[in-house]
Amino acid sequence: MLMKEYRICMPLTVDEYRIGQLYMISKHSCEQSGGGEGVEVVTNESDSHPQHGPGQLTEKRIYLSSKLPSWAKTFVPRFFYVTEKAWNFYPYTITGVSFLPKFSIRIETRFENNNGDNSNVFGDTPTPEEDVSFLDILIDPIPEKHYKESEDPSRWLSSKTGRGPLEKGWRDNHKPMMCSYKRVQCSFEVYGFQTRTEEFIHRNIRDILLVGHRQAVTWIDEWHGLSIEEVREYEQAMQEKTNNKVKSSQNTGEAAAPDLHCPEIPQRMEGRQKGVKESRKNIAWCDTGEDRERLVAYEKRSWKYMIVLRGYYLCISFQLNKQRIEKESMRN
């Protein structure tokens, strides 16, 4: 398992970002959906927690076949998706992503009005310094395909708030200032692919965080002044639009991946889930016995692909090693 803590500062307050976050996620999901891919919202309902109070539970299917590395595309369906479950008890949230028993992502987030100087924001074990990464929405690079001049903090100027553009060193003296603390745990327990896959996932998470937080800031004139009720209405309208975009682009075929996506239930919420059993070690939580049987069958079928892929990997490694030895012997 590879764990990192990301800290992303923004020229906003925590109260402002509650609106901006909902607006940004809804608009971004709609923009990124189409061509059989994107975000389909399955559930969006109120929830409550004895410690964190009232909040919102969402479940989404994220279709992302084209975003996978080439070596992974060989053994996934045409319309491949993972399921994301998020418990939003703002300013604390938990997000879980999974599609196989050996693969999972868990993200804890807490928002505070500071510049990222809280070394133990989650109140348990502080993250080692070498695993903490500060992401700067102004200077850190993003993939070229995601760059838009209108979303560049160095060119951004808010007509409603008078904020912007950001300048070098802005995190040291800008007011207001808040930080999004995200503790990301990624696990892919497949021998020979674990490190490579976990590093790939963290690189993509880093890009997603940078792009999303830049958008939340530079779109401020679109959402600033909205009430929580108004942004929830906007969220509902955009979810319907996004779901229609995803489904209409798949009308030539259905997603081949069965609905086996059962992310691990957050530890503090396990007692609230009725009838939930752990089928065996390292297998995600499922709601019914039928789900568990289908999940195990899907796992066995996936392992066949893994074995074949592993065979190719070993053959290529053997050939490369053989060539290296031959070159070294020729030098000698």
Automatic annotation (TrEMBL):
It comes from the Eukaryota. Residues 35-56 are annotated as: Disordered. It holds the Pfam family IP_trans. Residues 1-240 form the Phosphatidylinositol transfer protein N-terminal domain. Gene3D superfamilies: 3.30.530.20. SUPFAM superfamilies: Bet v1-like. PANTHER family: CYTOPLASMIC PHOSPHATIDYLINOSITOL TRANSFER PROTEIN 1 ISOFORM X1 (PTHR10658:SF83), PHOSPHATIDYLINOSITOL TRANSFER PROTEIN (PTHR10658). This is Phosphatidylinositol transfer protein cytoplasmic 1b. It comes from Cyclopterus lumpus (Lumpsucker).
